[in-house]
Amino acid sequence: NAEQTYLNFHITILDRAVIVHRITSCTKFLNVMAVCTLSLHKLTIYIFGTPKNRCYVALFDYTSRTPEDLNFKTGDKLEVLDKSYDEWWMAKALSGRSMGKQGYIPSNYVVPMQSMESETWFFTDTKRTDAEKLLMLPANKHGAFLIRDSESQKGHYSLSVLDENTVKHYKIRSLDSGGFFISRRVTFESLSDLVKHYSNVDDGLCVRLRSPCEKTPPTLGLSYNTVDHWEIERSSVKLIKKLGAGQFGEVYRGLWNGTTPVAVKTLKQATPHYGINESTILLFKKEEKHIRSTAAVSFNQGAKRVASGRDAGATVILKIQVDMAAQIASGMAYLEMKNYIHRDLAARNVLVGENNTCKVADFGLARTENESVYEAKEGCKFPVKWTAPEAISLSQFTIKSDVWSFGILLYEIITYGKMPYPGMVNFQVVQELSAGYRMPCPMNCPPEFYEIMKECWKENASDRPTFETLQWKFEDFFDTDSTAYDDANNF
C-alpha cells in the first residue's frame, strides 16, 4: 500500500539456499521489517519492508514545536512520505519512542540510511578551514576527528584530527580495487574499517582516533506551517528580555509557541514598511551566513520580526574573531551578489549563536541596488560612526559604503565591542574624516587584520575590496600552505 511495500513469493522445495537468495535479493531495495512462513506443504514467504530510497536516519534530536511535528532522537529510523516542502517533510517513525507515528520533520536533521552522511564521523561539504574550526570547538577533545570530501581531488577523502591545540590532516587515498589507505602498509575495504583500525591504534597517525567531531544541529525555520505564511499570531510570541535598541526598533529574546527560542525585533509605528522590506530581503534562501526572518507579526502599535536565534557566550580569541569576520563577509557577499545594500552594518546588527555562528541581521535600512547608487531621502538618519564619508556628505549609498561599515565592524570585533572613534562625538568624526583621518591600529590587533580594515576605509569607494574578496581574505587568514598534509609514515 501507500505506506509500506509488500512482497510475497512461493517456494515449493524447502531449499535453504533458495530461501536465503530470495530474501537477500529483496534487501537490495527494501529494508526488511518482517518475514513470515506459512503452510506445511508449501512455503510462502512474506516480506514486509520500506523502500530504501525512503528510509532515513536522524542525525540530531528533535523536539516537536507544534502538534503536527514528529519527535525523534539521534539514530531513529524514519520513512519519508512526502517531500512537498524543501525544509519540512512528512515522515513516519520506524523506530524509537514515536514508532508508528507520523508528523513533520526538519529535512536537514535526517540523511539517507546506510549513506556516508549517516556516519557520525563523516562531514559532507566541509572545507579544510571549516574542519579546523569545528574540531577546535571546546566540545571536542584530543583525538577528535572527522572525515570529509577532498577539496582538491573529487571522489577522494581527507581525515582531520585534533592533536592537542592543532588540527592535522591526512589524505585518504583510493585503491583501484575499491579500498582505501592512508599508509600503503595497511589498506581497508571501507572507510568504516579504516576508522575502526585507527581507533584501536594510531599506527602512524599523530594520535589514536577517539571520538567523532561534535555535530551542531543546523538552523531551521519555525515550523512547516510558517513556510508560506509569514504572518503569525501575536499571542504565539512571548517577549522575555530586551537585548538592545536602535533607531527603528528594539530587539528581544523571546519564545515562540512556548517551545522555540527566537530573536524578536519590534519596529516603531512610524516605520512599518521597513519590516516588510526586511522580510522581503530575507526571503532569499536558506543561506548559512545571514539570518532569515522566519515570521512576522503586525500590530496597530507596531510590528515584530521573529528570527531563529540562540544564546552566545563563548570566550572570544583571535581565531574566533577572524572566523566571525569571515562569516559576516560571506553574508554580505550574498547581499552583494543579490544587489542589495545593507546601510546599517554594525556589530549590533549581527546575531551570534551557538559555536559563535554569525548571521547578518537587522535590515531596517536595507535597499535594493537597482542602480549603482541609492540616495537617501531628505531627513533620513543614519549611524555616523559606521557610515562612509560619501554617504555622510552626499547621502549616496553603494555596496562599497557597506564595505566601509564592515571595516568599522572589524574594529568592534578586534576590540571586543569598543565604540569606534573613542572620545569623539559625531560632528568631530565628520570633520576628522574629511581631513583624511583613520582610526589607528587597536592594541593587540595583528597588522594583517588592520591592513584589511584600512583597505575598507579607502577614500575612493571603487578602490575598496568586494565582500567576496574580504571573505576569502579572512577564510585564508591563517593559511600558510593550504595544500599541506601530514604523512602517517613520518610518525
Describe the structure.
With 491 residues, this protein is an alpha+beta fold. Helix content is 22%, strand content 26%. The chain is built from 10 helices and 25 strands. The protein has helices at residues 16-26, 128-135, 191-200, 272-282, 318-337, 389-394, 399-414, 426-434, 447-456, 467-475; strands at 5-11, 30-38, 43-51, 55-58, 77-82, 88-93, 102-106, 110-112, 122-123, 144-149, 157-163, 166-174, 180-181, 211-212, 237-245, 249-256, 260-267, 295-298, 303-308, 340-341, 350-352, 358-360, 367-368, 374-375, 396-397. The strands form 7 sheets. Strands 9, 10, 11, 12, 13 and 14 form a 6-stranded mixed sheet that branches. β5 and β6 (88-93) form a beta hairpin. α7 packs antiparallel against α9 (447-456).
Feature tags:
491 residues; alpha+beta; six-stranded mixed beta sheet; five-stranded antiparallel beta sheet; 26% strand; globular; disordered N terminus
- How much strand content do the residues show? 25-35%
* CA gyration radius, whole angstroms: 27 Å
Major β-sheet profile: 6 strands, mixed
Q: Please work out how many helical segments DSSP would assign.
A: 10
**Shape verdict:** globular
Task: Please state the structural category.
Answer: alpha+beta
How many β strands by DSSP?
Answer: 25
Helical coverage, percent range: 10-25%
Low confidence ranges: 1-14, 272-292, 298-303, 310-316, 370-376
Mean pLDDT across the residues is 80
Whole-Å distance between the termini? 58 Å
GO molecular function, one term: ATP binding
Domain Protein kinase: 237-478
Domain SH3: 51-115
InterPro entries: Kinase-like_dom_sf, Non-receptor_tyrosine_kinases, Prot_kinase_dom, Protein_kinase_ATP_BS, Ser-Thr/Tyr_kinase_cat_dom, SH2, SH2_dom_sf, SH3-like_dom_sf
